[in-house]
Design brief:
Elements: H1 3-13, H2 18-23, E1 45-49, H3 52-63, E2 68-72, H4 77-81, H5 88-94, E3 97-103, H6 108-116, H7 121-142, E4 145-151, E5 157-162, E6 165-170, E7 182-186, H8 193-206, E8 209-210
Parallel strand pairs: 2-3, 3-4
Antiparallel strand pairs: 1-7, 2-5, 4-8, 5-6, 6-7
Helix pairs in contact: 6-7
């Protein structure tokens, strides 16, 4: 049992209010009960996970019915590029509209990220190119609606948007997106997070170069 598990059990035992749980990074027990907070409205953060591995069942469940899947990643291999990737089987079977924002392998940002993770730029860039090639294959073999864009900025956010649900994590000097804490965020009439990430990814895609 990890320290996170112990902390969550203590919170459950103390019947900690949901607004406090959310502030501490724990999932609310009754999200709709947060409406009494007034202008905040219904809680946007539906769950918090230690990493993508813990969130995988929920991600795949949401993806199974999604009509549109959009990802903001670096290389995307663990999400869509390999046969056993997180979303590849779902996209191949259900053929939703799939859009990927990947880091431009020829950019200075790619050089910086390669240095952060201790790889050569050549090795790092080949990973992005491999994912693009596998996405071309996916489109050709299954007829899936695939779009791929290259952005040129140092990666910070990693976003998996499945219709109106987002799974968000962050890149850091010592963390890959799939190993950092991940948050499940839903659209809310008064919330800022979902709207902000949607606006950010839409604008980044508009400024990026489409390669597929």
């Amino acid at each position: 049992m990890t320290a996170f598990d112990v902390f969550e059990r203590i919170a459950d035992g103390l019947a900690m209010p949901d607004e406090t749980r959310v502030l501490l990074g724990l999932a609310p027990v009754h999200p709709s009960g947060l409406d009494h907070l007034g202008p905040i409205g219904r809680a946007e953060m539906l769950a918090a996970y230690r990493s993508q591995a813990d969130a995988t069942p929920e991600i795949r469940k949401a993806a199974s019915t999604a009509r549109t899947i959009e990802i903001l990643a670096v290389r995307g291999l663990g999400i869509i590029g390999m046969n056993d990737s997180l979303l590849r089987a779902t996209v191949a079977l259900n053929r939703p509209v799939f859009r990927a924002l990947l880091l431009d392998p020829d950019s200075t940002a790619a050089e910086r990220r390669a240095a952060e993770v201790g790889e050569s730029h050549e090795s790092f860039a080949s990973g992005v190119s491999l994912c693009v090639a596998r996405l071309r294959e996916l489109r050709g073999q299954t007829g899936a609606q695939v779009e791929v864009y290259f952005y040129d900025m140092l990666p910070t956010w990693r976003v998996l948007a499945l219709d109106n649900v987002q799974f968000v994590s962050a890149f850091g000097e010592e963390h890959e997106g799939h190993t950092s804490p991940m948050y499940k965020i839903a659209a809310s009439a008064h919330g800022a997070l979902h709207r902000g990430f949607r606006r950010f990814t839409d604008e980044l895609r508009a400024q990026s170069r489409q390669v597929i």
